[in-house]
TrEMBL record:
This is 4-hydroxythreonine-4-phosphate dehydrogenase. Pathway: Cofactor biosynthesis; pyridoxine 5'-phosphate biosynthesis; pyridoxine 5'-phosphate from D-erythrose 4-phosphate: step 4/5. Keywords: Cobalt, Cytoplasm, Magnesium, Metal-binding, NAD, NADP, Oxidoreductase, Pyridoxine biosynthesis, Zinc. It comes from Sulfitobacter donghicola DSW-25 = KCTC 12864 = JCM 14565. Its main location: cytoplasm. The active site is located at the dimer interface.
Amino acid sequence: MKPVVMTCGEPAGIGPEIAAQAWAALGRDIPLVWLGDPRHLPEGTPHEIITDAAQAGAVSKRALPVLAHPFAGNAVAGEPDPANAVGVIDVIARATDLVQSGEASAICTAPIHKKALKDGADFAYPGHTEYLAALAGQEDVVMMLASQQLRVVPATIHIALAEVPTALTPALLRRTIEITHHGLQQQFGIVSPRIAISGLNPHAGEGGAMGHEELNWINGLIDDMRSEGFTLAGPLPADTMFHAAARAKYDAAIAMYHDQALIPIKTLDFDKGVNVTLGLPFIRTSPDHGTAFDIAGKGIANPSSMIEAIRMAHRMATTSS
């Protein structure tokens, strides 16, 4: 099995320490390689510099394999240095090259700090997902948040709530459903995915009393896609589709905007949620949290989400191979 490559993320955050902890938990069972500046790893982390990802499998059982990528600056916990921005961005691109060339099985990205990247390198993307899509030459990708209890996809992501009704178009929702359906089949091994779709408005519009998008086009789109062979439920009231009995009826849920999707999964499984990008020509996962500057370097960061992200990447790679 080719290794899962872990990107370093923002070196002043908790990324390097949770990567070291994830290797300690998983390195004997899953081949791993960390891509970053070894100076930024926590002091005392057992690691070995390698020159080829193919060396990771043997090394991972005894130490964290490191593909070294020199950065301009040191890492001071909790204090992002814009001088390191180019290094952070280049590591993501290098990891993408490794997985697209077949040298790695998947990418697991540590959190980045967008302001530091903007200040230090004029980073032009809203985040990891959009940058990875550009590197892969893909226009249409979706963000899935996944845990053992729930998989959920927001149709619109990092935009103001006031912009959602305009951004949410039939074409966007259709493509989100198609990509989610394909990802569940190819990367999760679900032959006939069942997908639940929320309404945009409270009570899914309640027959037009609380909004008209459901009546005007969402119902029709879902009916059309059912006739094409998709197994879809909805549009459903978002406030009743995430309890245990409801979740048992679908493999993934599509919500109409960011908080409608992320609140339930972060409530159900805050520490073990995983960010998965569907629609890329390779597997990418990430822990579902940020850089946590306030606790960086204190030895108290919880690696659970990083561990789950690596496990999921490995499972997905095994399923799709």
